[in-house]
């Protein structure tokens, strides 16, 4: 029974995260703004599963805060890019979009405290509930970085999504996490280099470095969340993969901005 639970907590996150990566990569091959509904969907999945994965008191209210953060961040990024008529030659809009996402993060903290004020259950585990809600809202909002990265450099999304998928697949192997983490770094670096090497505006070296960073994010999330007791549930375990892909948006957006248009 314990072995089955362990298998679920390892395989299901890898599967859900890989599916998310495939959707992101497929959207990036079309229009950058096609990533918006995909990222919004990831945010809604986080909103449903994150409070339940962490056994947060009043999970419905916490989920509402996370969902609002996800949708608001995506809306801000899309609005900035659409109204600015941004193309690959302009880098000002990503800065504006980033500032907008920071505002969303700040408002999410306020919303998390308002949620606590409105609770009628005696507010048990108050600090834990606030911290968990804010963390979920931050993950959901930061996932909007996939959209910003696609507007500046769609190739960065392809590299990041492929590297994340490689690391996630390795994380499902029945090996100790320290081993899957190390192998995941190698696999993600190789995948990132392979994809970047086939693009005109990115080098294999840049792709390998990006793959290493993305794999590091996946390994950290895997190490922190897979061990949670509730990660043995298939539905809740799926949230772990979504969380890893959401957080991976940060290095992918950084890649798009640092390499430049």
UniProtKB/TrEMBL annotation:
Record flagged with keyword Cytoplasm: no
Signal peptide coordinates: none
Keywords: Membrane, Transmembrane, Transmembrane helix
Transmembrane helix is among the record's keywords: yes
Transmembrane domains' residue ranges: 7-27, 33-50, 62-84, 96-118, 130-149, 155-175, 182-199, 205-225, 237-259
Name of the protein this chain belongs to: Uncharacterized protein
Species this protein is from: Pseudokineococcus basanitobsidens
């Amino acid at each position: 029974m314990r072995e089955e639970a362990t298998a679920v907590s390892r395989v299901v996150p890898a599967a859900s995260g890989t599916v998310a990566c495939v959707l992101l990569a497929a959207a990036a091959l079309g229009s950058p703004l096609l990533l918006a509904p995909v990222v919004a969907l990831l945010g809604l999945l986080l909103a449903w599963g994150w409070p339940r994965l962490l056994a947060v008191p009043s999970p419905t209210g916490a989920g509402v805060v996370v969902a609002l953060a996800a949708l608001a961040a995506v809306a801000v990024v899309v609005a900035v890019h659409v109204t600015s008529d941004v193309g690959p030659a302009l880098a000002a809009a990503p800065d504006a979009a980033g500032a907008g996402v920071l505002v969303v993060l700040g408002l999410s903290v306020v919303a998390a405290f308002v949620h606590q004020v409105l609770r009628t259950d005696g507010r048990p585990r108050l600090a834990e509930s606030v911290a968990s809600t804010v963390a979920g809202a931050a993950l959901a909002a930061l996932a909007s970085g996939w959209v910003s990265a696609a507007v500046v450099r769609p190739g960065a999304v392809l590299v990041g999504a492929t590297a994340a998928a490689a690391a996630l697949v390795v994380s499902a192997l029945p090996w100790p996490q320290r081993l899957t983490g190390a192998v995941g770094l190698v696999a993600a670096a190789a995948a990132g280099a392979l994809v970047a090497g086939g693009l005109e505006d990115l080098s294999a070296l840049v792709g390998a470095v990006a793959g290493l960073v993305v794999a590091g994010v996946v390994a950290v999330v895997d190490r922190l969340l897979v061990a949670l007791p509730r990660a043995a549930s298939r539905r809740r375990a799926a949230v772990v993969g979504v969380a890893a892909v959401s957080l991976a948006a940060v290095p992918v957006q950084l890649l798009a901005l640092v390499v430049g248009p």
